[in-house]
Write a structure and sequence with these properties.
Blueprint: H1 2-6, H2 8-15, H3 20-40, H4 43-59, H5 64-107, H6 120-127, H7 130-145, H8 154-165, H9 173-178, H10 180-195, H11 200-208
């Protein structure tokens, strides 16, 4: 984390509001910590997973659903009986960052542009508008295949590599379940575009790249 945060490029991008880089970093670190906990059963790893999830929520609002996703995965992987004890250690890690978030949102009046001018009726209307999903997925496909401006799309190369290598048959249930976390978090990001109060085309062009 320190090495990543010390990179000049990361600091520059963070200064231009690309703090999704840190959300991604904390997400990956959280999943890694959970995998290490599953392998060693050392409670410190579970505490670290909670801390990373809390830091993701502290960095950006999109990190808040990540904590809920981690709770659901913990219950699925380890069962309800063990989840009760495990979630206590997990929440102990999230405590400090979440307290900071609560204090900030309580005492510093900053409107969330996603909900400030976006009522429930408008949000539900957008959620059930198919053309918004088509527009978002079309823009996403264009961005992915142009990623890095490679002569051959890096996404195609990665897909081919994945098909050749396949998934390890020895992967544990927890590894397979935790794989759903970044996918679910990705869906959360796409839903932000669906319900955005801004002009959708402008929002896509401004932030998806």
């Amino acid at each position: 984390v320190v090495l990543f945060a010390s990179l000049p490029l990361i600091d520059f991008e963070m200064g231009t509001a690309y703090n999704d880089l840190y959300v991604t970093l904390f997400t990956v670190c959280c999943i890694y910590a959970l995998l290490e906990w599953d392998a060693t059963l050392h409670v410190n790893w579970l505490f670290m997973a909670g801390l990373m999830a809390g830091l993701a929520a502290w960095t950006k609002n999109e990190g808040l659903p990540f904590i809920i996703l981690m709770m659901i995965c913990t219950i699925i992987v380890f069962g309800f009986r063990q989840a009760h004890r495990n979630l206590l250690s997990f929440f102990a890690g999230t405590a400090f960052p979440i307290i900071i978030v609560i204090l900030f949102k309580t005492f510093i009046s900053v409107d969330n542009d996603l909900f400030a001018n976006n009522g429930l009726s408008a949000i539900f209307s957008k959620l059930f508008t198919p053309t918004r999903y088509i527009q978002i997925l079309t823009h996403l496909a264009t961005e992915l295949f142009q990623l890095g401006n490679w002569p051959i799309s890096i996404i195609v190369i990665l897909l081919m590599y994945g098909l050749i290598m396949g998934m390890r048959s020895s992967a544990s249930v927890s590894e397979k379940v935790l794989l759903l976390i970044p996918i679910s978090q990705f869906v959360v990001y796409l839903l932000i575009y669906v319900i955005t109060p801004h002009d959708l085309e402008w929002h896509l062009n401004y932030s998806m790249s």
